[in-house]
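Reopening this ticket.

The earlier resolution said the output was attached, but the attachment link was broken on my side. Pasting everything inline this time so it's all in one place.
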Amino acid sequence: MTERTPTPRFNHVAMSVAPWVLDDEGRAEIIGFYGEVFGWEEMPTMTQPGTRLVLQAYSYDQFVFITAADDPMACPPDDHFGLSVATLDELHAMHGRAAAFAEGKDGVRLIAPEVEDFEVLRLHSFYVGYLLPMMVEVQHWDWADNLDPTSG
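Inline output:
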């Protein structure tokens, strides 16, 4: 019998930003936005003010790793990483918090919720970003009744 190992899973995303993004004001803005919208928290034992910010995303082994660089990451506006939520209500609540934060605040990139219908799956999503080069896509997978999502 072959021994199976646990399935690997993503645990972090890393990106570089211009040094000014991680100054005291920029760091506070990032922590405020991503904390308010997603519930992420700074990992102060890993953060180095001015050079590195680490945001814990729900558990100690899920995080966003942000470093300052003279030649920071640059990517097209639609480059992103994804976050999956369990309910449509959760997706809409996150979108609502992002929209509220964006009111009167320059620089928040917010793409309204959309639904792609694949018959067996309705994929609900929206995109949001602030001060980081990559946006976050939030998705909810709404499977058709009586469908086993592992069936492909």
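Reporter confirms the inline version is readable. The helical segments are 24-38, 88-102. The beta strands are 12-17, 41-42, 52-56, 63-68, 80-84, 109-117, 121-129, 135-143.
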